[in-house]
């Protein structure tokens, strides 16, 4: 599936690029920090960037790149994700994605489908996929996420989100709930903050725990106001700490 997806994105890009001028429609740079508040699970720093190329009114590709530092675990990670996006109308987009997270151990690959809708006062984005340890096809699990955001007075945006990471490395399950606010300090310069909690459990031991976390950061969008059509899908990006 992953090879078919990448080949399809490249083939469509070449064929549509012959008929339409390629245009950079958006992108962003994002610097963030997150931490668990009540445990020794540690904290994380991230530096991410993304860019989107449109080959027609209906089709675009998006590439996300990221670097992560998990301070307490003394681990570094990098990530990339390629999206193929189809814009069916001015307020609805659908896509497929494939990417990899690289850490100081077995790498994780992930892939799936995604959709975004502008529903008047609110925007909705959702994704569904799989993640697995590279070269260990039996160590895999589901990915799912849903986010709803709404704007207030042109400068503030509020978001509620849920993300599920199932059977990560075969030992951990994550359910992450968060609410947050974005403040547009300038036209495309955003300061953001989130608070939430992670329900963490393991299929190999009994018991689970709920851990609160916070995340803050700054982001600069380029091109359209959203920066890119879809958000980041990397597994490392969903972990507030390690």
Give structural notes.
The structure is a single chain. This protein has a single domain, classed as Porin (Beta Barrel), CATH 2.40.160.40. It contains one helix and twelve strands, in the order H-E-E-E-E-E-E-E-E-E-E-E-E. It has a twelve-stranded antiparallel beta barrel with strand order 1-2-3-4-5-6-7-8-9-10-11-12. A hairpin with a 2-residue loop joins strand 6 and strand 7. The longest helix is centred in the N-terminal third of the chain and has 16 residues. The radius of gyration is 18 Å and the shape is globular. The model has no long low-confidence stretch (mean pLDDT 89).
Task: Please tag this protein with its features.
242 residues; single chain; Porin; 12 strands; 1 helix; mainly beta; globular
Q: What is the CATH superfamily?
A: monomeric porin ompg
H and E order: HEEEEEEEEEEEE
Helical amount: under 10%
Backbone structural class:
mainly beta
CATH architecture grouping: Beta Barrel
Strand content: over 45%
Mean pLDDT score:
89
Question: Over the alpha carbons, how many angstroms does the gyration radius reach?
Answer: 18 Å
The count of β-strands is 12
Low-confidence stretches: none
Main β-sheet description? 12 strands, antiparallel, barrel
Counted up, domains total 1
Number of helices: 1
